[in-house]
Amino acid sequence: MRYSQVLVATALLAGTAVAHADPKITLSNNAAFFQGKYGTDHTINIYYDATDVQVSDKKWKLKLTLPYLSVKNLPVGAQISSGGVVTGASTTQTRNASGMGDVWLSGQYTLLPAEGHVPSVSPYAKVKFGTASSSSGLGTGRNDYEAGVMFQQIASPKLFPFAKLGYRFIGKPAGSNYRNIATYQLGVTYAVSPRSFITPMFSGQQSMVRGNANPADAVLAWNYNVTDKGSGFQVYLDKGLSSGSANFGIGVGGQIVF
Predict the structure, then answer these.
(1) Which residues constitute the signal peptide according to the record (predicted)?
(2) Containing domain of residue 171, as a range?
């Protein structure tokens, strides 16, 4: 469960059929609910709501993500980070917490456009600012930094495979045994119509604590563009494939393109 990454990836691919030469501004809001044990003995409920502001053109994009986070039944000593739960010492005590999540700033630039069966190559970089409360378990309180590359292919007028590979440098609180991690996504977007898109996707990453289960999820999303510019909405289902992920998740989002 990667929270907004799911909506980002599928909305990005759905927008492949709506190209813009001039810079555009996109305002979006995405809400999601996830439930699972995340490798603990407790069933944890996580609600995530993020507002995104993005400026982009055909070659580049810059995006700011402002999230709100609410969690129930989080084990004392555990922290939420990178869309998962990082556990500390085992405990039978749990707590509830709500507040601002970690703010993300990301940028991406297309070096090589897709041509024939050759995919586009788009390096990206992003920063997670440790704005979520570490004392409440909503975050680690440290910044993370990630760099990677996105590949997109136009296999046919209706089929758009994609892959994303990244490496994240994890900010380590004092006394933690966190490690840097690799992240990845693999999927394909199918254009049911010029405005309707279906995306099955696999998303995963290494665990931040060596020896814990690596988070991995299967996602099925549907995007619908209401306008020619790309304004529209999305719903998606998430199924965790490891004990390091939520058991299930559901999300809905909408965006307005100016």
Answers:
(1) 1-21
(2) 4-257
How high is the pLDDT of residue 237? Answer: 98
Region of 107 on the Ramachandran plot (φ > 0 left; ψ -120 to 50 alpha; else beta) = beta
How confident is the model over 1-23, as pLDDT tens digits?
Answer: 455 555 545 555 555 545 555 78
d(CA 101, CA 48): 8
Tell me the β-bridge partners of 247.
Answer: none
The model's pTM: 0.91
Q: In sequence order, what are the beta bridge partners of 107?
A: 62, 125
Phi, then psi, of 245 in degrees rounded to 5: -115, 170
What residue type is assigned to position 129 of the chain? F
Q: Name the pairing type of β-strands 181-191 and 120-129.
A: unpaired
> How far, in Å, CA of 224 to CA of 232, rounded?
6
Residues 87-129 have pLDDT tens digits of 765 678 999 999 999 999 999 999 999 998 899 999 999 999 9
| Cβ neighbours for 218, distance < 8 A, ≥ 6 positions apart | 200, 201, 202, 238, 239, 241
Is residue 35 within 8 A of residue 43, CB to CB? The reply is yes
Report CA Rg, the chain. Answer: 18
* Count of the separate structural domains present in the chain: 1
CATH of the domain at 9: 2.40.128.130
